[in-house]
Amino acid sequence: MRLLLPVTFLLLLLFLTGCAENNSPSAGQAAANVISNVSAAPGSSNLPNATTGSDAPDSSIAPHTPVTGQMPVTMPPDFAFSVRFGITGKNEINTFNGTVTKDLVVKGTAQAELVLTDSELADIYARLRTINIYRELNLEPDTRNCVQTPFDEEHWQIRLDGEERSFYWDEENCEITADAKLMKELRSYIFELVKSRPAYLELPEAVGGYD
Questions:
Q1: Per the confidence metrics, is the pTM higher than 0.85?
Q2: Mean pLDDT of all residues in the chain?
Q3: What φ, ψ does residue 53 adopt, rounded to 5°?
């Protein structure tokens, strides 16, 4: 009997200890709760919609600037253009090089110096902006009702804000689009300015013609 009492007491003690452990959090659980409480503190990254690390936006990246599709209001300082026109496109007004070229047909071509004033360039730019070459110009006719030879053609090269744009069309099919007419009217206006200059008037007359 005396031997049974210590054994019984020991078993009872072990039973009570096991119950106490089941009702209290383990050391690992307690540590997890502490970590959870620290992470849930105000301003932590576990808050809803918070971003951390690679998910956070990079403040060094500038926002994307949408293309407006409209030329700048003020003429860029690097604005320049060249336009070749006429049958075979040998006539040229070129502000890149500061030259005007005249087609002499049988006699080849002749060239003179050309300097447009700032006000003339600003006027040309304003007219070009009205057309707005930043949009997609329609220069191909929808229908081709005829074919003619010879025919006029136009080649434009325009520089704005460090970018160059090229445009071309011809009258081989007898008709041109509305956008081509606008560009042709602008070229005619520019040519009226140029051909009244003394340097152009001194160029030789053309000899012959195109059949």
A1: no
A2: 79
A3: 55, -130
